[in-house]
Amino acid sequence: MCSETGSRYTGMLLLALATAAIIANLLLYFPNGQVLEPSYITDFVWFFHGFLGAGLLVLVPALMLLRGGGEDCCADRCGMLFPVLLAIQGTVGAVYCVVISSLGLLRGPFCDTGSGNYTYPFRNDSLEDNYLFNQPTWTTCQEPEHIVLWNVVLFSILLGIGMVEAMLCLSQVISGLCDIYCGTCIRKGQDPSTRL
């Protein structure tokens, strides 16, 4: 965690990913650019996994990493605990995004199948018969137009973003815990027992 250059690069990457997650989650509210009534939007969009999970909960550790520690970032081990806690927060948010995105992909979109009633036509599929592996079934959804493709692409993007964010935040947790327990002061020529 005290490697200033590496942490800043990680912070920049997390900031870009968090911004992309917020945008992708926002786009899920407007299938094909259409404004729909809230009751016609897929239920997993309302879990705010891109806004909250991969967005805001990852944005805080990203900004902390961008800020950098300065010269005294590793002066004491207790002071290094806060960045670790923020990285854990980011990991939890990213994992939340991965779980909700996976469920959103598996369960499918909320759409009109031609009868005028909105439903989840793919919810009863088994994994073998899942709509994700059977593209001709995507025409089952009539309205909004191309809703299946819209959901598959955006939930997949959020799934990928969440996985990368989880790995980056987890690497920061491991790095920070190693710095706390192994002591970075030893490398700087200081006595670690004097800085608790």
Strand-helix topology:
Blueprint: H1 4-28, H2 49-67, H3 81-107, E1 111-112, E2 118-119, H4 147-183
Antiparallel strand pairs: 1-2
Quaternary structure of the protein: single chain
**Beta-strand percentage?**
under 5%
The gross shape turns out to be elongated
Largest sheet properties? 2 strands, antiparallel
Strand order of the largest sheet: 1-2
| Average pLDDT, all residues | 86
Structural class: mainly alpha
Calculate the terminal CA-CA distance, rounded to whole Å: 17 Å
Based on DSSP secondary structure assignment, what is the total number of beta strands? 2
- Uncertain segments of ≥5 residues (pLDDT<50)? none
Question: Which features would summarize this protein structure in a list?
Answer:
about 200 residues; two-stranded antiparallel sheet; single chain; mainly alpha
